[in-house]
Design a protein that fits this description.
By secondary structure, this protein is an alpha+beta fold. The protein has 20 helices and 29 strands. The protein binds ligand ME8. Ligand ME8 binds next to strand 1, helix 1, helix 7 and strand 11.
Amino acid sequence: MSQSTSCKTTSCKKAYITTPIYYVNDIPHIGHAYTTVIADTLAIYSRMIGHDTFFLTGTDEHGQKIEEAAKARNRSTQEYADEISGKFRSTWDRFDITYDKFIRTTDAEHKLGAQAAFKNMFDKGDIYKDVYKGHYCISCETFFPQIQLVDDEFCPECGKPTSIVEEESYFFRLSDYQDKLLAWYDENPECILPKSKRNEVIRFVESGLEDLSVTRTSFDWGVRIPEEINDPKHVMYVWLDALMNYLTALGYGTDEAKMDQWPARVHLIGKDILRFHAIYWPAFLMSLDMPLPKHIAAHGWWTRNGEKMSKSKGNVVNPIEIADAYGLENFRYFMLREVPFGGDGDFSQRALMDRINSDLGNDLGNLLNRLIGMSGKYFDGDVQSDLVSKYYQVELNEMKASITKLEPLLYDMQLHRYLDELWRPLSVANKAIDTYQPWTLMKEGREEEAMALNGLIANILANVAIMLHPVMPKTTVNIAKSLGFTIDGDSYQKIIQDGALLDRFTIEKIPPLFPRIEEMIIAETPKEEPKKKDEKKEVKKDDKAEGVALITIDQFFLTSLKIGTVIKAEEVPKSKKLLLLQVDLGDDDIRQVVSGIKEWYSAEELVGTQVCLVANLKPAKLMGLKSEGMVLAAKDGDGLVLMRPEKPKQSGTEVS
Ligand code: ME8
């Protein structure tokens, strides 16, 4: 999907823009789409203004959790990684993402480049061998100090159990870089955005850095350390391997043709991976004697009903479903406009509809419709700009004042403010129509002023279309077409930079760009709707019929029931009643469930069969074992039977 541009002059600016490379244990969701759309917006903008742009995205495919996810599905790890990586790529293609390269950490060039980097750091004396012992979370691929664990056992990031790992490891001398890192933060106030996040990082580094374990011997699915070191059981720590992608994508250690793109203009990331990017990554780069990135920009979380999205909570928003229902570019606009960069945002279809109907439909779409209507009715579609400054200089000045504020906001990642500021000229235009009333002007024979007013509206729309282009590429091309010009580097230079007005043109009628959306398009579980005041959670006494408590459909839908496949079952030692099951709910969501069914089912006969699972129960501990769900069963005098689907269904299918 690349629209790679190169600089026309040798002195022009470079813009190397990256997203995180996404783990292939998850299918793309709105959070991934958010990061990628921000990066895409910056890339389209940088190309438009003539910067030599290179936009990188891709997938992170190594590590124990990918190996285990593949194993649980009886797939080879490579085959499994290929499939999920393909899903990311096809999602970005559906999103018209203009990446120049899609890197995979399983690419041969990446592995060679990562090995070259490891060797350079080793030769420099920054990597040495020792023994590591600590609490390791496989899911987060991270060691945690005891003090950070929840209940002395569970990972503070994802809540899954950690295990004690003791292994021989190579270490990176991170502690040597503490002062150099602090100096970098100090001398580059914009190296971490938003600036509040920079302070957090500084505090963390000031509290002291320990050397970092950068190899593992406990699994195989990774990049081996270089042969020259002669220690073949070591593979690279997945974060070292992954971070190197930003260099290897440009050919570091292999074909270095693109290395002149370095350093990155911006690494876009979510706040969850700030530590890796703002501490480890610059330290690795310093060790490699490479220049440091200009910005590391960390955005916040998309949540659902205030909770972080995750597959295990079943609250993940599928970005393709939303784009198909509401329009891809409307969704892009919404994501960037709705949430201040760095803050968290709650996703709801209502908020999306409001943005489409109000900002896009009323403010932008209607303005173009009004112009098409007025110029058609009074001037046969003819639009001229010559007299705009004579009658509407104040409005033109107001527009310019907003337009000139935009670029710094973009590079400061203040995308919501960028869009907010971009909407001001639209309100200037809408207000001008209401104030000067072209129909009155025409009635009074002041045709020149009416034509100039149309010219003003057309020029405001042209400016807005160009500056909105990186967010809504196709929609703005349509607007420009209707206004008789093309959005490209030349029109950006002429209209935005030089402040030239549009040439005379005949307006082209186009269908309304943002048809009003009256109803939520995707059916939702009622729990997403705000609770009505009189709706009480408890079941009222009168709601009882024949001794059975009546619940509302809303209350029923609070329970998430899913079909799961038992992939492993074993007896719980010392328990007469309990079996320990691993239940696959699809999409890499495997639950450990402790179930009191041993009197009626043996562990062996359960493996490969399906069950119905309550998937949103709070995890509990039974006999010291974590249980993340409950299987449904019916019991009478004859004993207990499990509730199962009549025919096999895909793991994870909702029961309703
Ligand atoms: O961390 N809201 O990969 P990952 C907003 N492979 N953004 C979200 C989000 C949410 N709910 N969930 C995920 C990794 N993201 C590593 C990166 S880079 C060298 C290696 C976004 O698949 C956000 O950008 O877990 C986050 O940083 C990224 O997805 C993590 O993706």
